Amino acid sequence: MSYLDQIDKTKVPEHVAIIMDGNGRWAKERGLARMYGHQKGVEVLHDITTCAANTGVKYLTMYAFSIENWNRPVEEVSALMDILVDLIEKETITLMEKNVRLLTIGDTDMLPENVRKAFMGCIEQTKNNTGLKLIFALSYSSRWEITKAMREVTQLAIEGKVKPEEIDEQFVSRHLSTGIQGIPDPDLLIRTSGELRISNYLLWQIAYSELYFTPCRWPDFTEEEFWKAIVDYQHRERRFGKTSEQVR
Ligand code: IPE
Ligand code: IPE
Ligand code: MG
Hints:
Blueprint: E1 15-19, H1 23-28, H2 34-55, E2 59-66, H3 74-97, E3 101-105, H4 113-125, E4 133-140, H5 142-158, H6 169-174, H7 177-180, E5 188-191, E6 210-213, H8 223-234, H9 244-247
Bound molecules: 3-methylbut-3-enyl trihydrogen diphosphate (2 copies) and magnesium ion (MG).
The site of one 3-methylbut-3-enyl trihydrogen diphosphate (IPE) has 11 residues, from strand 2.
């Protein structure tokens, strides 16, 4: 039986965030260059985006490139950037057909001009789409995001536009790149490839997300794996600090 049949359609997580990890190892295990893993990885990204939309997910945030990833060998970074531009150029039509809106979080100023342009163009083109919001975490790191927010809030305080006592958790959330764009906190965070870490991803936003780790390398990730994660999520009890009796 497919995991799809086990999904409770009334309890689909609104926001799923994914750390797409394991492309390099997937390629190496097949005697291929890392780049092939990234190439296969974007094909999977296409499939999972469609799958998430069809499953009823409203927000899908994909960790595509971290700020720390800029420290990889220049050849890999440049191959990855080419793959991303290629992806966006090819995918824009599909996103329009599927009513998907593209958004990004991250330091897009660090991106090469052609990559930035490709993403900005697609964001603009898809801005009126009302279906799934596909958020690319691109040149993203959580500490960068929190530091940036602190700087901006300090500036507001200096200008007398905010008082310290007005800064509460909602205020902080609204000043992060997710909150600014109306993106809620993830309900479910999936990491592929077997690593049990967060790697500077959405640290503030995942305070109460359910975490799901799978040894599956990202290029091997399938719809079935995605549904399996959703089913697993649906068996969790989200207590938010309360007792089991309180939330039942
Ligand atoms: C994830 O796969 C993609 C990016 C980080 C861009 P990796 O490239 O990290 O693959 P592994 O972890 O080395 O196998
Ligand atoms: C996290 O994967 C970033 C992305 C998937 C884009 P990494 O492969 O960069 O993470 P670490 O270095 O193993 O923590
Ligand atoms: Mg990795």
